[in-house]
Write a structure and sequence with these properties.
Length: 260
């Protein structure tokens, strides 16, 4: 029974962006299922606070996903502590909403650093530090599946996340390491507090979501837990959309019945 409730007992988990909405929910769920969870972020106060609230089995460390030395330091520390990386959830990053004509080179590079370079470093870390049979979950976006006006920098980085995820899945399969990507739709977190989102008509946006509401961080964390665990043991190199149906297709006005 304990095995069912705590499938991650004895497993060391690293979550980036764990001070935030989705990363925080993943850290909480993975710890509740018995994992030893290293929460990491650049927001040290919020990250420490989250780890303290989770309590047993939770540790906080500073890790900027675009900084190679931060990855090396955290993984080395886990290893000294006898924690061989078993699950990695790479969740960190911000968004930028701006038309291409109004996107500076520095802004574009920042999106690439956080999402694409961050994913590269996560996957390279997994390749070298992860135990055989481990699982990596990268976080792309429905905006990395559907090209979206106003999200050129963010969206192209997220398309790239899916590509890198598949390459890693192919390269790490022989060691039994599975690598999959989650593509959230619109999830209730702080991410849309960033530049360009203040004037959004959220109600109009929600009307475009087939399931009629935004998702919760816990719903994304549940998908991550599935991809980390035994139930997904034959799944690698794929994307799991957690988007309330946004990417399923285009809804058209009700068609008139055809006359006989
Ligand atoms: N919320 C959504 O609607 C949504 C949709 C699709 C994809 N996503 C993706 O989910 C992931 C998590 O987003 P969220 O919604 O939880 O946002 P959030 O703002 O709640 O959390 C993001 C976290 O990342 C941290 N962070 C930012 N830059 C970092 C860096 N360089 N290194 C380490 N940490 C950094 C922030 O401090 C924050 O704690 C992001 O990759 C985001 O693109 C979110």
């Amino acid at each position: 029974m304990a095995e069912l409730a705590e499938p991650l007992r004895g497993v060391s988990v690293l979550v980036t962006g764990a001070a935030g909405g989705i990363g925080g929910a993943c850290a909480e769920l993975f710890a509740a299922r018995g994992g030893t969870v290293y929460l990491t972020d650049v927001d040290d106060a919020a990250g420490r606070d989250r780890a303290r609230r989770i309590g047993k089995g939770a540790h906080y460390r500073h890790l900027d996903v675009g900084a190679e030395e931060d990855w090396n330091a955290v993984v080395a520390e886990m290893s000294w502590a006898g924690h061989r990386l078993g699950v990695l959830v790479n969740c960190a990053g911000t968004a930028l909403k701006a038309p291409l004509a109004e996107t500076s080179l520095a802004q574009f590079r920042k999106m690439l650093d956080q999402h694409l370079v961050g994913t590269f470093l996560a996957l390279r870390t997994a390749a070298s530090a992860m135990a055989d049979g481990g699982a990596v979950i990268t976080v792309s976006s429905v905006r990395g599946v559907l090209a979206t006006a106003g999200l050129g920098a963010y969206g192209s980085a997220k398309f790239g996340v899916r590509a890198l995820t598949r390459v890693a899945a192919l390269e790490l399969a022989e060691r039994g390491i599975r690598v999959n990507s989650i593509c959230p739709g619109s999830i209730e977190t702080d991410i849309t507090a960033g530049p360009g989102f203040a004037d959004d008509d959220v109600a109009a946006y929600v009307r475009g979501i087939p399931l009629g509401r935004r998702g919760t961080p816990a719903e994304v964390a549940a998908a991550a837990l599935f991809l980390a665990g035994e139930d997904s043991r034959y799944i690698t190199g794929t994307d799991l959309l957690v988007d309330g149906g946004i990417a399923a297709g285009v809804r058209t006005p009700r068609l008139q019945p055809q006359k006989a």
